[in-house]
Amino acid sequence: MAQSLNFFVSTSRSPDFAISTHSYSKPMFQTPNRLLKLAKSPRKPVVLVSADNGQGGLSAVAAEYVSDNGTKPIVTAPPDSSSIEVDAVTEAELKENGFRSTRRTKLVCTIGPATCGFEQLEALAVGGMNVARINMCHGTREWHKTVIERVRRLNEEKGYAVAIMMDTEGSEIHMGDLGGASSAKAEDGEVWTFSVRAYDSLRPERAITVNYDGFAEDVKVGDELLVDGGMVRFEVIEKIGPDVKCLCTDPGLLLPRANLTFWRDGSLVRERNAMLPTISSKDWLDIDFGIAEGVDFIAVSFVKSAEVINHLKSYIKARSRDGDIAVLAKIESIDSLKNLEEIIQASDGAMVARGDLGAQIPLEQVPLAQQKIVQVCRQLNKPVIVASQLLESMIEYPTPTRAEVADVSEAVRQRADALMLSGESAMGQFPDKALTVLRSVSLRIERWWREEKQHEAMDLPDIASSFSDTNNLEVDALFVYTKDGHMASLLSRCRPDCPIFAFTTDASVRRRLNLQWGLIPFRLGFSDDMESNLNKTFSLLKARGMIKSGDLVIAVSDMLQSIQVMNVP
Ligand SMILES: Nc1ncnc2c1ncn2[C@@H]1O[C@H](COP(=O)(O)OP(=O)(O)OP(=O)(O)O)[C@@H](O)[C@H]1O
Ligand SMILES: CC(=O)C(=O)O
Ligand SMILES: [K+]
Ligand SMILES: [Mg+2]
What is the ipTM of this complex? Predict the structure, then answer.
């Protein structure tokens, strides 16, 4: 039976909106007309605040609703009305451990030779992979197509909602592919030749192809050449036509297509590639491929401004079947930091791409940049991924370093939406173990947040200041019925203590929601009648043992301006 609650309906505290409170008490709470009117004026946040859960003590829950008048309805065949799509791992987790223990931080795995087989992909899905990333820097389109098909098969056959993220190559300068070798060792004092010449079959010893034609003209004798942001260093000692002779000063392993940067007098040489477009002609072909294959996210490398994001978004809109590929901005250059807010505002999410970022700004600035990017994304309600070298040592070893565990913990503490594995899952020896480390560290830190009531003092202007009280109600789960996912992401942004069950009719919305903090996306056919939606959800979830009678649930929807609080019958 529904529980009796008193609600105060108010607009957010933001100075743009007048405070309007409205007390309301009903077993099944339906939004009063006053709220309906408010919510109907487009783009006005409305906050529903409940006080007094009937069991004494002040409690509050806030749900923010932004009217969706501008968004177009998504047309897809509704799923079978008698079923609910959820993956076996989530189902088992909910059954065994209940709501509290579900992982909130999402996990992205880069797929490479170590993980491209169907069984390997399945092992990652079982291990908690929410998003599979394919990096167009590596492999052929045929290879990527096979990976996409396998992930899709996994979703269809096993009920997963693993999303696909395509990461563009971008036009930064990088080495060639080492003629098929998996790596090459550069030793101290050796002289290597970097050249724009393509060595077709036989790569001479200590010779590296560079992908940028202007390379030999742009570098100067005395420049420092950094591979992968400093993993290996060279000094330019001589230029002979297209060949540039470089002396190895910091030895290390050269990996295929490793990124190259140049430093002169202690600062990064940027002019050389300022003219290169963010999205190269090869990238556009890859993007066409991604659109044709129906990827869920396109992550744009080396974004410099919001313009390129807007351009890509309109390109996708014109070409994609339902215009529903989300565009993520990779923050990995000085320019992207300079234009951070406008880039993130234009994007559907962002990635803290610490690998290249660390090659462009001093390493000691990377942690602060990360914190800033995560915060801006939260403010602007965009999902954010923390990426690169989280568990780098696990490429070779089965256990992480303590420092790596601390780094992962910090990203979880910052409440990033997602963590990403790169080489650890693409070509490492222990992809499943690395994923397990991300999963267990996430769970541990999230539990700490709840147990210690470590609710951040983050200022989210559009969310009721009663946000911290949200958790006092001790709700077991938030249910959100969402067509395009927007309402679900608003709830995710609040980072509540309880999991958010996001129900959507659309399989691609379900996959995209899988990147966002705390959302457990389900695919379910539903109508405008919330009462029947709830009854149906309860009976389907109860039948599968994912909820039980007495669980306290708050339900919101972006089709109807309603919020309901009830115990599962
Ligand atoms: N599809 C692939 N085929 C072969 N190797 C791959 C593939 N994807 C990734 N790798 C390997 O895994 C490593 C780490 O992957 P990652 O995606 O982080 O690439 P990256 O080269 O560091 O570039 P980026 O800056 O785009 O992340 C790569 O350097 C490469 O050796
Ligand atoms: C992920 C990525 O592109 C980077 O860290 O550079
Ligand atoms: K890339
Ligand atoms: Mg990068």
Answer: 0.98
